[in-house]
Amino acid sequence: GLLSVNGSISYASQEPWIFPSTVRQNILFGSEWNETRYSAVIKCCALERDLKLLPYGDKTTVGEKGTSLSGGQKARVSLARAIYRDANIYLLDDPLSAVDAHVGKQIFEQCFEVFLKGKTVVLVTHQLQYLQRVDYILVLHNGSLAAKGTKNELESSGFTFIKYLGQNNEEEELEVTDNSIGTDPKPLEEKSQFEEQTKDSSFISCDTYKRYFLASKDYVTLVFAILFSSLTQIAASATNYILAQWVDVGQFEDTDHQRYSYIFGSIAIASVIFTILRSIYSMKLAKRSSKALHETMFKNVIRATVSFFYANSSGIILNRFAKDLAIVDELLPMAVMVVLRTILSILGVFVVICFVNAWFLIPTLLVVATLYYLRRFYLTTALNLLRVEGQLRGPVYSHVNASLQGLPIIRAFGVKNVLTNEFYYHQDIHTSSLYMALATSRAFGYWADLVVVIYIVVLTLHYTFNSDAHGANIGLVISQAMQMMGQLAWGVRQFAEMENFMVSVERLSQYDTIKTERSGDHAEIDWPTRGEIKFVGVSLKYSETAPYALKDLNFIIRPLEKVGIVGRTGAGKSSIMSAIFQFVEIEGSIVIDDINLVNVSLGYLRKKISVIPQDPVLFSGSLRYNLDPFSEYQDETLWRALEEVRLKEVVDNFSSGINLSIGLNGINDRG
After folding, report:
1. 240, 351 in Cβ contact below 8 A?
2. Are 591 and 536 in contact (CB under 8 A)?
3. Would you say 367 and 452 are in contact if contact means Cβ atoms under 8 Å apart?
4. Which residues pair with 516 in a beta bridge?
């Protein structure tokens, strides 16, 4: 068919989309700042009181998906974004369903009838009380146009809305006064969701090393890895020393060359065997340590309290599981092996040099001390840069995730360039920190190599003016010194890299201290049987610094009662559900069928209580999986449930039926 649109369009989606930024930026969304229009939008969307309750007003940062705002607040911010934009046509997809009748009436009168007077407004709604005040009505049924006209025209023609909407909620009113508001809306955390913990020390602590090497608790493998690493170096140093002695005595006719060849060959073969065993046990230890770190972190995240996910976006969490864990899996084991090999090699060279010329220990120790202080100077900067780089990586992931969630809004507003520039901003900040870390590493490598070159020059000049030493010993000392200094410079750089990689272990270890949900004891198998709920002095707040969302609630819900919880947006209605499900620790007690919920395991409790959440969530998979994820019910039961919610006919229209594929967050369904 043909669709013709004349004029610019603004759009508010059915599911509010809030991106990680301030409330003001969520409303402006790329539009120019106009204080008069902005104030009018805030007023007509009933956001004045809510903004006063936020820690920093409209400059308060909201978290990913707007998790720090209630459902009604998110809906009104999304509506404010749509009407702040100066457009000719406003498409508003059910913006009043998430607010109570009092606020909905205020928004309809001040926003649609006054602020948007003279504009074309297409309002999607199922609330009949507003139809009397609109100019034209289109009634849709199963994707087709069932009727059209004004309300009086439709009623005079015999059209009944109840047939299509299920019930008549016309002139539904809810008297709400300021005195009926029990609590303030749930406040935001003052700490930015992108802010992560960092260590005060500039260096990696010994506890971090212990956490990595002892994570698997496989002490036998650890001992064998160290043992075979030591034996490998002993064999390598022994072959060099035996070879030098063989060359030194080889000028005499009575030299037993066969004896030296046997000794040299035996040690060389042992060195190869020890090297293989060293690699096997080292990689075995690294694999088990990495696996143990991942299992611990995954277990803690799965059992973390809800407040943890309020404070950390999915980008930050994925950053730990992706980049940090990849470093621990792929880069850290090799760096540890190189550092251990270098340390043992330097010790072996020291021993060999002691047998030849003990005076060379003096310049060698001076060089080692110089490189050590260079390393300390470098690590002070490099580790902090790596920590900053890790922190700045999270916002990149979060921005991409939020942008994918809000693609329809972004395209409808035509602000792809705004979001792209914001991505470039996050990416540039992250890349600049990474570049500084790499530049610091290159600078350290330059100065380390310069010190090594000076040392080798001094060593060579010494033997140039001293011809009394044996040729074999001269060759051994110079070759060992060059080998040591080459390895030393490389090893110090690798040690610095290892400490950089250890930052990832440090960041993974931070998840060891995540506050997890309690376990509790199992209740009786037939609990609950009656469904009586008692709230005794229940108070709830979402963080230590936040005000109470629920204050000293005392009430009883009798068995079989149907109870309505009434209140304005942000009054604490959803917090009661959070308290029953024990998503947040509470003060006081909640008793169901004479059993205190603190004595019930959370898994058992949540399995016994069903909930319809404020924000519907569908998982990627089939419709059957979303209805019955644990495969506990027959198809007849699932079809009966679909029929009760009037979805059976919709599902029947698809050839796959109950096996209909559902996309991430339900993007394949019709909403």
Report:
1. no
2. yes
3. yes
4. 304
Confirm if 414 and 528 have CB atoms less than 8 A apart: no
> Does one domain contain both 481 and 626?
no
CB 133 within 8 A of CB 113: yes
CA atoms within 13 A on the CB side of 410: 16
* 3-class DSSP assignment, residue 618: coil
Q: Where would I find the H helices in 320-406?
A: 325-326, 332-356, 361-405
**Residue 615 falls inside a structural domain:** no
Separation between Cα atoms, residue 168 and residue 171, nearest integer Å: 9
496 vs 377: CA distance, rounded Å: 11
More confident residue, 343 or 569: 343
d(CA 225, CA 227): 6
- Res. 658: pLDDT tops 70: yes
Whether residue 556 is predicted with pLDDT greater than 90 in this model: the reply is yes
Query: In terms of domains, do 340 and 429 share one?
Result: yes
- The DSSP line for 7-26 is S-EEEE-SS----SEEHHHH
Structure confidence by residue, pLDDT tens digits, 277-318: 998 998 899 899 999 989 998 998 888 887 788 777 777 788
Strand-pair partners of 587: 539
- Separation between Cα atoms, residue 110 and residue 99, nearest integer Å: 15
Domain count, the chain: 4
* Least confident among 157-166, 381-390, 563-572: 157-166
Pairing of strands 9-12, 89-93: parallel
Only one residue has tokens 């709830």, namely: 540
The DSSP call for residue 583 is S
Are 16 and 96 contacting, i.e. CB atoms less than 8 angstroms apart?
Answer: no
**Whether residue 237 has pLDDT greater than 60:** yes
> Residue 540: helix, strand or coil by DSSP?
strand
Residues 505 and 634 both lie in one domain: no
Residue with structure tokens 């198809």?
Answer: 635
Is residue 303 one of the residues assigned to a domain?
yes
pLDDT for position 163: 66
* Whole-angstrom distance, CA of residue 517 vs CA of residue 308: 11
Evaluate if residue 469 carries a pLDDT over 60. Answer: no
466: left (phi over 0), alpha (psi -120 to 50) or beta: beta
Residue 451 belongs to a domain: yes
Both 475 and 335 in a single domain? Answer: yes
- Which residue in the block uniquely carries the two structure tokens 């293989």? 276
Domain that includes residue 49, residue range:
9-127+172-180
Is pLDDT of 437 > 60? yes
- Residue 161: Cβ within 10 Å count: 20
Instruction: Evaluate whether residue 521 is within a structural domain.
Output: no
For the segment 92-116, what is each residue's pLDDT rounded down to a tens digit? 888 888 787 788 888 888 888 889 8
This prediction has a pTM of 0.59
Q: Is the pLDDT of residue 249 over 70?
A: no
* Alpha helices by DSSP H, 250-331: 257-302, 306-311, 314-319, 325-326
Q: Where are the beta strands (DSSP E) in 541-641?
A: 550-557, 586-592, 595-596, 621-622
397 and 467 share one domain: yes
d(C-alpha 149, C-alpha 139), whole Å: 9
- Calculate mean pLDDT across residues 640-657: 86
Question: According to the model, what pLDDT value does residue 494 have?
Answer: 77
260: buried, middle or exposed (CB in 10 Å: 19+, 13-18, 0-12)? middle
C-alpha torsion sign, points 431, 432, 437, 438 = positive
Q: What is the pLDDT of residue 173?
A: 42
φ, ψ for residue 536, nearest 5 deg? -120, 105
